[in-house]
Hints:
The protein is α+β, with helices and mostly antiparallel strands.
Amino acid sequence: MIVGVNNLKFSICFAAMGAVLAFIMFFWLALKSPGHLYIEMSNDNGGEGQVYVDSGKGYRPEGGKTFALMPDGKIHTYGIDIRSSIPNAIRVDPGATAGNIKIGKVTFENPLFVRQFSCDDIRLLHALRPVQAGVGNCVLTADQGDPYFDFDVVASRSLNLRHIKWQAIAEAFAYAAITFLLIVEVSRRPNCQATSKEKWLTNTRCMRLYAILAFGFISFIFLNLHVSSIDEWKNYVSTDIRSGIIFGFSRPVRSDEWREQTPFYASQTAHGFALNNPSLGAKNVTLAATVPVKGIYGYTQPRFWGFYLMEFERGFSWLYAWRVFGLVLSGFILFSILTKGDFWLSLTGSVWISLSPFMQWWFGTNLPDMVIGFAGGVSSLYLLLRSASLRTLILASVALFFAGISFVSALYPAFLLPLFYLALFLVGGLSFRDRLDRSFINQWRQKTPFLLLAIGGILWILAVWHHQSSGIIDLVQNSVYPGKRIALGGDMSFSSLLSGLFSPFLRVDQFPLELGNVCNASNFLLLFPLAWMVMLRRYQKTRQFDPLALAISFYILLMLVWMFVGYPEWIAKITKMSMSPPLRSLLGLGLASILVTVIVFAEHVSESNPLIGKTENTARLLMFSVSLVASICIALWLRSYYPEYVTWRMLVLLLPVLALWFCSYLIGAREWLVVITIPLVLPGIAVNPLAHGVSSLKNAELSSFLMEDQLLGETRWLVIPDLQYPQYFKANGAMVWNGTRFISDPGEMRILDPTDRYRDVWNRYAHFGVSPLPLGSPAEFELIYADSVMLKVDLCSEAVSSLGINRFAFLTQPGLDQFPCLELLRHGPVAGTWLYKKKDTVGGV
Length: 845
């Protein structure tokens, strides 16, 4: 009894420390976020506005930030990102010359408090004097150049409790309370291990793991964490906002994530998850672009729930929390079923898959969502067929429904098809091993309704999607890229496949150059030949194969034939493998290799089925020698084939670790195998950055301007000439014609190309830039790369107006004599761009 009380006291003290640390972490990350200043102001004096921040050392000239003014005498809202989230005071220079200035609402906001300032809070410091004072505004005049005023922000004499964001304080306490409860729950559980088959997923260790993963998931959301490379935008956009990266580096090579997909998410959030978002391309293209949309199809995808329920920043963290922790959880449950409840092997297999270079270098795509759906689908189907518990049947059918939706909604056949066939072989192998047919037949009346509801629900959602997206599917299939590509297999090289031996050493600047980039070079450490040798040795002794390992091995053989030999065209088309080129099918082979390697080892360490008898040291030595010699030969061959990639240093570091791994595998040393696997998979942690917030993607000045401009009427932008910058505008709420277009509407494109002369150029998924042509010139399209197109067009042409384009952003200030139809929207650049509008439209100067 005393021991129990002492353990409880220790748990409470330990949990209290964890809660305090969580509370501090919440505030520390909140204070790393930038502040935002919003000024409602009218002016008619010239020059640009400037903001200076006093963080305790006075106003420093090098810390000033410039923003563009609209000197038209009308009230406008200006948004400025402030590097410091807790300034003592802020100074504002409203222009550079004499004139009239009217100040309305002034608001400063950071994650922890928000404050509005009145005329009484503002100190007129230089060249400003009041003409009239009123409620909520100040009418001033600047007698000479360089006028400025300031106001205290968080000085003790001016800060009030009503300025604090109590919601943020409540979130901090909630996060601390959840931390406290989870630590108490994990630490107080008795240290017992249930071995019953019914307890594979609910024993003490599993419940502790679930609590840890739940804590990680909640922490990601509360602390606004993610593993995106959106910090790359700091290299394109002029901003002095501090980096949000906590650990690691952003990856420019992952441009399909930070440049395309993430701005698409932000654009959808800004436009209310509209089914039709012209910024992405043709009508209803959102149904093919894997973004959050309104409707049953979007609402049944758990990865997007955060966007629907919270603001974009938290929704973005939800998405990556779902991917990071969902991948580990779904993999662990699948491996627990495959290994019959071996906790440490299941956790090792799950982490091995999650940190594999192939998975990490493609992590910003829909790949994690597909693998979560794959693992969750197989696991839930197994539990649904096997379990006799009503509660398990309900949970398994719900999990099967959402896993199925997560899988099919990823909409990338090149990855989906290898995973789908692997799932079929897994279910088939499990059915033979655990006699799932008998389990189902014995209770078919009870289980059939749940199975039909889950599968029927998935088919219904797919039918809804297909009905709404049939037009966009036809456009994609009839495009040049991606189009109806047909792969027949057989074009995988041995060097590409075997280069996975050195996958732990992959870096953005260190990979086989023949493969193009590090993402294409990413691979798996394929160790299935060792598992096959063990299977054959066991067959020699028992005259039996494990049905599950045999099923996966047969799948591996089929994938190897597809990669190196290919299938006849009719087989490739019937199986739809024609949509999955070997370089992408590598996903299925890599996962199957990990699965069979872990399953065979689990059979070895199980007491009822030893791998090799204790007197079989000769067989062990032979298999170890063959494995090691083969690895050395492959390594040396790769060294000669990729001399710029495979170095002697790599050989010296890798081969001893592999030798220890082979030895541990063959003698059945579970603990050693788990430990030695760590250095083989740990480099995957450093592939993607751990970052906080979305300040690199969002710009207060640009987003507030766009919001104000949209109130005046419907707007559509061209951003000139860049291919990347249009995506930044989309992320900040603009409706932009160019940038990344998932697919284009032929009817719309014929406005620019009435004779279809350039159809093979624009009819594709592509990044569109814009290059102005002289007045009266016909539009042209130039193919720069397979996925990059330059539109050359007269900006004043009727064709541009017919597309609804009435706003223009230039990265350098153009001469208005070139474009007589344009006029400035704002004097001075906004987020590094000069903004113009058509003269016959409302808004602007």
